[in-house]
Amino acid sequence: MTVDENPISIIEGKEFIKDRDIGYCKYGNGPMKCLFICGGVGCYKKDYPESVLRAFKESEVTIICIDPPGYGTSRPPDRVQEVNRCKMDSEYCIELMKALNQTPFVCLGWSEGGRTAVHVAANGKALVTHLILLATSTRVDWRGDMAFKGMRNTRQWLQSSRDVYLEFYSDEYLQEQWSALCDVVAK
């Protein structure tokens, strides 16, 4: 695929879904409609930066990148990490795509966003044409639990790993959210 020579803008917006404003961006105006879901403590600007979106030919795809409730531009309120978070997020994803008239669609999830994408595909069978999972695990065994426990304190991460998040979140928010996510994974 080649990038179009006169690129169109990436449009950012919010849509009121269920009980809150949900932030998203839209790229392209093509017939293949796609929903991109970010990973844990992510946001579309971190996980799907402009350079990634512009790798797609805008005349062939329309990409919607969602910030799930409590992440990125879908704040306030802040994220509540709970066991059924991905299933609940899937409802916002489906309703956003309906509200934006972007159905049927391909659903792509990165990392924890892949868990949400599985629920989107299951709950929106008539709307989802394809499911793409990137670096996704749907179950965490004792080894994964140990890995999460080892990553719980973000202040012990390499600074370069922290910086990716700190561009979009405060140090306090990152530590609070990541710790809570690790605690939920252990359940």
From TrEMBL:
Gene Ontology molecular functions: serine hydrolase activity
Classification via SUPFAM superfamilies: alpha/beta-Hydrolases
Short name of one Pfam family: Abhydrolase_1
Domain AB hydrolase-1: 36-142
Domain of life: Eukaryota
Protein name as annotated: AB hydrolase-1 domain-containing protein
